[in-house]
Design goal:
A hairpin with a 7-residue loop joins strand 3 and strand 4. The chain contains four helices and eight strands, in the order ββαααββββββα. The strands form two sheets. It has a five-stranded mixed barrel with strand order 3-4-5-7-6. The chain is of the alpha+beta class.
Length: 158
Amino acid sequence: DRVSTQSTWGRRGLVMGKPRGINTARKLGDHRKDERWADKQFKKRHLGTSLKANPFGGSSHAKGIVLEKVGIEAKQPNSAIRKCVRVQLIKNGKKIVAFVPNDGCLNFVEENDEVLVGGFGRSGHAVGDLPGIRFRVVKVAGVGLYALYRGKKEKPRT
C-alpha cells in the first residue's frame, strides 16, 4: 500500500476507485503481478511442478527397460485387451506404462529389452479407449518398432 487509492464523492457517498495520479505505476504493476497467479496456464508455466511431475523431465522421448508385459482393458463401449508394457526409465528410475502399437508387435518386445518411449500425441493426456496410458513404445533394442512390424528390419541378437 505505497499509493493509496483515490476516493471520490459519488451518489452513494465516498467511493473507492482505481488508483490514479503520477505515482500509481508501481501499484498497478504489483497488482497485476499478484493477479496473474490466478491464471491456470500462467501458474502451470511458472511453478515448475508440471516439469517435476512429467516422467520424461521435459524431454520428448526417454529410454527404459521393460519390466513386464501387461494387457489393459479398453474403456466402454469398446471391448478389447490392449497390449502394453511396464517400463522403468533409465534417466530417473520412474516406472510408467507404455502402449505397444500395431497388431502383433508385442511379440517383438521381450522383458529386460531396452525400449525408446515417446508421448502418445496429446501432451500428457490419455488417448482413445486406453485408460491412463500417456506413452507408447517407439523403438526396441535400437530398431524402430514400425520397421520390425513391416519386416524391413530384424531385431539384433543379444
